[in-house]
């Protein structure tokens, strides 16, 4: 494994921690600033909005510099945002710090995916991407629970100060370990946007919104589901989320490994199994043991879709992958916001705390249908290309050099 992937994973760990740890210390933050919990919830939605907007914006602005320099700038921005949050004298400043930190999120994962894929052989690209995202999944297993504990024991400001230190470690790692490859070949805004002329790029991002959104439809309301339906105590929810994070970690690694061998079959399997699992969750949520097992599976299957989805976007936008890759990270967060809203709608309509699982299953099932469409269009494009060139795959293959 190239050590540069470790540097990217450290950065991803810090970003993943700051994204989700706010949920664990939200009551403490609200109490210190004298605002309501719903008002404090703006720290979550503001971060998500910053990711969606920051991913394409900063990626476009970074087309004039090398990817390494851009990654260093993004980690610096992340450090500034979390430092601002840790020192915030008012809620408004805290919100500004969250937005500043979030601006680095989408562009870091988008550019980082391109860098990670470029560090290894073509047949190992999805695995390399999954190794970078391992930092994000480990954050949910270790960073978020530990950050929540520190925030409750020593104060939430200490938590964000610690996350800023993680950002510094990521910055130094990128500076030391990521190779300087120069500016991207397609270092113009026009060329980067040209990638979006490919319908497959839009289909891939729609699969991301719907597929991963299905996970968040259920997980956003996991606390009331586990306490009111399964019968767990409020304190047990933290450990249930650790199980969910462990599932994410394993699913991410498996998804990356098998996507390198057979990308679309892996995506079909993960999306189909995820949709079925979310349906089953409606029933298993009534039993403590089965609910815990199902929650772990949702995390595993949900993140098993991440490496193949990200690699599919890179493949379809191969001439100018950076902006498309970053936009796909924004699509993950757009899916999270959409699914959370839909889950709240069905709960408010009186369908109960397990009803978001049905929403999630429907969203994921829609992503599965889109993946079939994407595979069909890809086969048709390849077939047309063979007809135009008048060659078969074997005939068009390069002839080995003779020595």
From TrEMBL:
Membrane topology: Multi-pass membrane protein
InterPro entries: MFS, MFS_dom, MFS_Efflux_Transporters, MFS_trans_sf
Residue intervals passing through the bilayer: 42-61, 73-96, 102-121, 128-150, 156-178, 199-223, 229-250, 262-283, 289-309, 330-352, 358-377
Subcellular localization(s) per the UniProt record: Cell membrane
Broad class of the protein's primary localization: membrane
Keyword terms of this UniProt record: Cell membrane, Membrane, Transmembrane, Transmembrane helix
Region forming the signal peptide: none
Highest taxon in the source lineage: Bacteria
Gene3D superfamilies: MFS general substrate transporter like domains
Domain called Major facilitator superfamily (MFS) profile: residue spans: 4-382
Name this protein carries in UniProt: MFS transporter
């Amino acid at each position: 494994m190239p050590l540069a992937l470790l540097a990217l994973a450290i950065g991803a760990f810090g970003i993943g921690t700051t994204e989700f740890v706010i949920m664990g210390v939200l009551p403490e933050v609200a109490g210190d600033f004298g605002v309501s919990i719903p008002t404090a919830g703006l720290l979550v939605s503001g971060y998500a909005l910053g990711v969606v907007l920051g991913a394409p914006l900063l990626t476009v602005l970074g087309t004039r510099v090398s990817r390494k320099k851009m990654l260093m700038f993004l980690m610096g921005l992340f450090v500034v945002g979390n430092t601002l949050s840790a020192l915030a004298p008012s809620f408004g400043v805290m919100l500004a710090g969250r937005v500043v930190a979030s601006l680095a999120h989408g562009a870091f994962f988008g550019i980082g995916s391109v860098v990670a894929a470029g560090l290894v052989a073509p047949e190992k690209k999805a695995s390399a991407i999954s190794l970078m995202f391992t930092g994000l999944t480990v954050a949910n297993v270790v960073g978020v629970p530990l950050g929540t504990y520190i925030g409750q024991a020593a104060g939430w400001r200490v938590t964000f100060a610690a996350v800023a230190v993680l950002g510094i470690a990521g910055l130094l790692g990128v500076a030391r370990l990521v190779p300087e490859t120069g500016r991207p070949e397609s270092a113009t805004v026009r060329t980067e946007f040209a990638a979006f002329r490919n319908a497959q790029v839009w289909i891939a991002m729609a699969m991301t919104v719907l597929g991963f959104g299905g996970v968040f439809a259920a997980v956003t309301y996991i606390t009331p589901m586990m306490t009111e339906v399964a019968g767990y105590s409020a304190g047990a929810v933290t450990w249930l989320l650790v199980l969910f994070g462990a599932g994410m970690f394993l699913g991410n690694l498996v998804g990356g490994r098998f996507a390198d061998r057979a990308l679309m079959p892996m995506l079909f399997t993960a999306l189909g199994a995820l949709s079925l699992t979310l349906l089953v969750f409606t029933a298993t949520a009534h039993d403590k043991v089965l609910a815990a097992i199902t929650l772990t599976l949702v995390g595993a299957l949900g993140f098993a879709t991440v490496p193949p989805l990200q690699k599919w976007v890179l493949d379809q936008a191969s001439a100018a992958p950076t902006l498309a890759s970053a936009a796909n990270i924004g699509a993950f967060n757009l899916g999270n916001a959409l699914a959370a809203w839909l889950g709240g709608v069905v709960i408010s309509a009186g369908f109960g705390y397990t009803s978001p699982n049905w929403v999630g299953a429907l969203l994921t099932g829609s992503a599965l249908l889109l993946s079939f469409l994407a595979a069909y269009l890809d086969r048709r494009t390849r077939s047309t290309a063979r007809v135009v060139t008048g060659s078969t795959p074997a005939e068009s293959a390069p002839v080995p050099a003779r020595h």
